[in-house]
Amino acid sequence: MFKGFSSLRSKINLVFSITLLLLAILFVGSIKYDNARFQERNEAHERQIAHYLYDYYMRNGKIDEAYLESQNVSLIKDKAKVIQIESYFKEKGKYKHFATDTFKLQRVILINNDRFKLFLENKNKPKLPVKQIVIFSIVFMLIILLYLWIMKSLKPLSELKEKIKTFSKGNLDIECASDKNDEIAEVANEFDHAVKMIRELLQSRQLFLRATMHELKTPIAKGRLMSEMLPDEKSKSRLHSIFERLNLLIDEFAKIEKITSKNFELNIKPYKMSDLVEASIDLLMIEHPERLVTVDIKKDYIVKVDFELFTLVIKNLLDNAIKYSTDKHVTVIIDDGKLEIVNQGEQLKEPLENYFKPFHTSKGGLGLGLYIVKSILDIHHMTLAYRHEDGKNIFTITQQ
Prior knowledge:
Elements: H1 8-60, H2 65-70, E1 73-75, H3 79-91, E2 98-103, E3 106-112, E4 117-122, H4 130-168, H5 183-227, H6 233-260, E5 268-272, H7 273-283, H8 289-292, E6 293-297, E7 302-306, H9 307-323, E8 330-335, E9 338-344, H10 352-355, H11 369-379, E10 382-389, E11 392-399
Parallel strand pairs: 6-8
Antiparallel strand pairs: 1-4, 2-3, 3-4, 5-7, 8-9, 9-11, 10-11
Helix pairs in contact: 1-4, 4-5, 5-6, 7-9, 9-11
């Protein structure tokens, strides 16, 4: 029932709306009560006037018009108007010894007895409820001012929300410290402190990783140089391939660090899926890749991606598929709108989502591979699905 009032602002709006509604009901009820009291007094007064006029006429044989004037009541003497009023009372069935009604916005009194017949206009009307209007206006303004004051107090909360959104998108250069003394300021200050701590931790982590990768490149470069001095061409080629692989891994770690820290900009361009697969196979740096990977192009298609990141996705999937296949062979199927990577092997022991966790440690786990794959696919708005059919593991990449 109250799903639309889940936010704090909605609840405050509801409370103040109900308060104003109750205030309006109270005001209208007060006015109606005063009008009802006036009507009761007015009707009693009209009967009192009728009795007085009859008694006065019996004593003096005439109507006391001075008394009527003092009671703010006047005698209707216009014959045409009297005829109209008389017809009106007869039509409504009120032509009696004593009756009252409203005729053309005038309060009319009919006195019809054995001595005389009179039509009187009662000019007494209820007074403007100045007192109630003043009190209602003051209370109404106080409630509105209180509402505006509270909503103004919540404004820093909206600003904090926007900064949290900015922070969640990877922008760590935000400040939300407050010099106020309320609870919202306390939350803002604590969040500001947390942002600074996270920023410092990320900076120290990035510095450590970059320094480590930089230091690793030096011995790799020396190793490559030393391998060139070997007389055996076969050994030289193998060592050269190993050092190239290590260098490539360091570059991949650099990309992973950028992805996980959100410290990168996508370079989205359209590419043919077959070209992306071919580039990914080259990244595997294996001899005779055609023996390990078969590409089946049923219907090629164009996809808009970041070339370096997306080829890393396919490369990791191919690497895992070869590593965990029973026959050390993988088939890549390119079909309109989807890419399938198929290998012969045992079904995954756990749901695919569990393998998206970094450093998954279950037996037969896929390490960082699928964590990196999931992170890159998420920023490309793509999904990775898994199924096991006829003894084959099938990973499918599709656009969301």
